[in-house]
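Notebook, bench 3.
Goal today: get a predicted structure for Phosphate regulon transcriptional regulatory protein PhoB from Candidatus Methylobacter favarea so we can plan the truncation constructs. The sequence was checked against the plasmid map this morning, with no discrepancies at the termini. Length recorded as 230 residues. Pasting the sequence as submitted so the record is complete.
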Amino acid sequence: MSRLTILVVEDEDAIRGMLMMVLEQAGFKSIAAADAAEAQKVLDENAPDLILLDWMLPGISGVEWARRLKKEAVHRDLPVILLTARGEEEDTVRGLESGADDYMTKPFSTKELVARIRAVLRRTGKIQGLAQISLGDLVLDTDQHRLSISDKQLEVSPTEFRLMQFFMTHPDKVYSRTQLLDQVWGRSVYIEERTVDVHIRRLRKILGKYGKEDLVQTVRGFGYRFSLPD
């Protein structure tokens, strides 16, 4: 199967080079541009599967270029992830209103970036055939509904499977119990927050049989984080 192509639009050489290296290591093909004008030329000659787009670019800003792209029928469905140092809520809203499919605030974990890229590509149908999510020796197969460590299947409930799927596509980021309830159980369902704790404890017990209980970490006073050791 041919590699999916990511267009990296970033004006800082060091960051652009780092992103391209991370993408290549994750199995993607990467092409690069330093600003929106150069990116437009690249886009005219190539058909990338996703664009990683820095907000603050010289000339036309990334968010403005994304807005223009999404108005063109030929590029309307091209996934865009904005990268920015802006972390205010109103900036997030502006970024997503431009038509971007996701939004990441610098500095970010490269593991989370790759996971979010794959999540967007799955959501937009670019890699609908990719049924497996792999982090280290942990593999989650969405088609087979199986979770395994080193090829050994773990016995988890459907809820715990969804919880692990969310964690594995959003590593290294802290989520409150309320956020986990919304993402895993759904906003239309009323469930007490302590239900999250019960499932976390069960997951840790299951993972603990393989020495992996520390993958799900408690962040005191806020919630939980899923993280693999570097």
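The chain is about 40% helix and 20% strand. The longest strand covers residues 5-9.
Flagging this for group meeting.
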